[in-house]
Design goal:
3 domains, seven-stranded mixed beta sheet, alpha/beta, 15 helices, 448 residues, six-stranded mixed beta sheet, FAD/NAD(P)-binding domain
């Protein structure tokens, strides 16, 4: 039976579309508004995708909507980080000591298209493309929109959910009522930005470099990474600072860019035939963290996904955290039997602690990927963690707690993981890994 309640969702990206699917599956009527054209009908802008890493938390949320298996056709498993040292040496740092745990490289547009196709299959879910949200009445769950012809539309729902990204119009409406809502907001940028390049498939149509890993060239403040795509290409993302001798502002001629890559990443040049064109065509963009509280207003309007908690991409959890929002929200809908006056405040209280935790972990991982993945003690710690995970199924490293234990909250994973890291780093600094009694190590970890 179709419920009478009408849910208005602003933003048809990954989070908003999955939310719409799950709500219509529960019998609600859903109107989903997106300011951009239907991505299934247009050519994607180059250089704006940053491949996503889909892991257990995201898969668990997709499974609630019946998409847990079908999405795997879009995935390429990545079993670890393949580190490219300045010397030219390479080694794999596995994500887990358990063979069935890995993350998946997936295209953002490909995944979004899959979700939109699913959404279109429901009679009571309507997607309005090229509808720009110009304002929100928080107290009445009303959105004001302008379509591509310039015509204005006023749409009221029983609740309104803002999943409209880091620049959220819905969040700005809450900020404008900050005194009434006691609304807190913070935005912090890294000194580094990002630019995307690509490694095409080889002439024979195969991958040019190892396809089952996330590649990292750690060079301090000028790291680059590469993730595989289904067409046998790689999306390469560089993360230099905006200023300084190796920054975007300095690398402003083809000669400087080529000299920069030749000095720091010489093994990539043969795989980057379009380096000059892509570097000067694709945009340079900033990386930042957004935190806010509360996420609900007047028990009528709610924030979710990047609108509530944009994070940097270095734990591979931005999309997974947004999908987990949908799963947690869905559980509250079940628990409170559709009582929005209870659901929205409960979600707003339950979720920010975890989103703040993964935001902090993502920044930590940025510096780890830049500076630590080829550090001697870090390598020894990862070797120890792999041994522990292989021999003791109950042991999970910090990375595994975050990535492969979706039943554990982000905050609990962060607390446990940081305690373990501190202990293990001290241990490998004092002793050789092969000399350790692993059973004693696990016993000690369990008391931390």
């Amino acid at each position: 039976m179709i419920k009478k309640q009408h849910i208005v969702i602003v933003g048809a990206g990954l989070c908003g579309t999955l939310l719409g699917i799950r709500l219509v599956q529960r019998g609600y009527r859903v109107s989903l508004f997106e300011r951009r054209p239907d991505l299934r009908l247009i050519e994607q802008d180059a250089g704006r995708s940053i491949n996503l890493a889909l892991s257990h938390r995201g898969l668990m949320a997709l499974a609630t909507a019946g998409l847990g298996e079908v999405v795997r056709d879009l995935c390429i498993p990545m079993r670890g980080r393949l580190i490219h040292a300045p010397s030219g040496e390479k080694w794999l740092s596995p994500y887990s000591g358990r063979t069935d745990e890995y993350i998946n490289s997936i295209s953002r547009p490909g995944l979004n298209a899959l979700l939109l196709e699913k959404a279109d299959s429901y009679e009571n879910l309507t997607i309005y493309f090229e509808y720009k949200c110009t304002g929100v009445n928080l107290e009445t769950a009303t959105g004001h929109f302008t379509d591509k012809s310039g015509e204005a539309h006023v749409i009221q729902g029983d609740i309104l959910v803002g999943t409209d990204g880091a620049g959220s119009v819905v969040r700005r409406a809450m900020m404008a009522r900050s005194t009434d809502l006691l609304f807190n907001f913070s935005q912090n940028f890294l000194r580094s930005g990002y630019k995307e390049l690509s490694i095409p498939a080889s002439a024979s149509g195969d991958f040019r470099i190892e396809s089952t890993a996330l590649h990292i060239w750690p060079r301090g403040k000028i790291m680059i990474i590469a993730l595989p795509n289904l067409d046998r290409s790689f999306t390469v993302t560089m993360f230099p600072p905006f200023g300084g001798p190796a920054g975007f502002n300095t690398l402003n001629t083809p000669e400087k860019v080529k000299a920069f890559f030749n000095e720091h990443y010489p093994d990539t040049l043969e795989h980057l035939p379009d380096l000059d064109q892509e570097y000067f065509t694709n945009p340079s963009a900033a990386l930042g963290t957004i935190k806010c509280y509360p996420w609900e207003a007047y028990k009528k309007t709610l924030l979710m996904g990047d609108a509530a908690h944009a994070i940097v991409p270095f734990y591979g959890q931005g999309m997974n955290a947004a999908f987990e929002d949908v799963r947690i929200f869905d559980e509250l809908v079940e628990q409170h039997d559709g009582d929005w006056s209870a659901i929205l405040p409960a979600f707003s209280e339950a979720r920010p602690t975890d989103s703040n935790a993964i935001a902090d972990l993502a920044v930590d991982n940025f510096y780890e990927m830049q500076d630590k993945v080829d550090d001697v003690d870090f390598i020894k710690k990862r070797k120890l963690e792999m041994k522990l995970e292989q021999q003791f199924p109950e042991y999970y490293s910090k990375y595994s707690l975050v990535t492969f234990k979706p039943e554990l909250s982000y905050n609990d994973a962060m607390i446990r993981g940081r305690r373990q890291d501190e202990y293990l780093l001290d241990l490998v600094n004092r002793k050789d890994v092969d000399e350790l009694d692993l059973a004693q190590v696990v016993e000690k970890v369990n008391t931390l």
